[in-house]
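Researcher: I'd like a structural prediction for the single chain below. Treat it as a standalone chain; there are no partners to consider.
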Amino acid sequence: MTRPLRIEYEGAFYHVLSRGNERKEIFRDDKARSLFTEILGEMSARFSVDIFAYVLMGNHYHLLLEEIKEGGISQFMHKFGGGYARYFNTKHDRVGSLFQDKFKSVLVDDEQYLQYLLVYINVLNPAEFIEHNWKENGIRDIEKVLKFAEEYLWSSHLDYLEKRGSLILERGILGEMFPTKEKYAELVRMVLRDKKYQAIDHLVLE
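Model: Treating it as a single chain, here is the predicted structure.
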């Protein structure tokens, strides 16, 4: 069975997802998560890819990327995934593929959807730890979700709130849209309150 063509072009934004093989965990401690982000930054610089947002979950991760050079994302994901897999396999004395098939990606070609996707990655993914059914039922406790997101270290949410300065992030057009932490916080609250995440079902990867 042939795979669909992966279409990439310069200046385009993509939502990217990669999941552990057999949905098994790909992070077992914070040291692994920290190394993962280091490799992420190194490879993005090498392969002309800008990282606008990220979140590390138990058995998968999400990225919001801009393609600076045609074909850069495919090269980046191949080298980056391979580098982290070698570390993980060596440390845990395992062999075989760490990740499930090839990564998934979807083009983001609307500025409003780009904003909503930023909140989906930064806030709504960590929300799964405390509100498991938010996709079906909506967010029941917005304040609780916002508090948890500020305590969750493994997404770029804290960087957009200006509580941390990550060296791997390029805010670019999103920095122009949300030049202050207050503007970003307003976006987050609006997306959660008005369920704007429902508008990007076609961009959400599982």
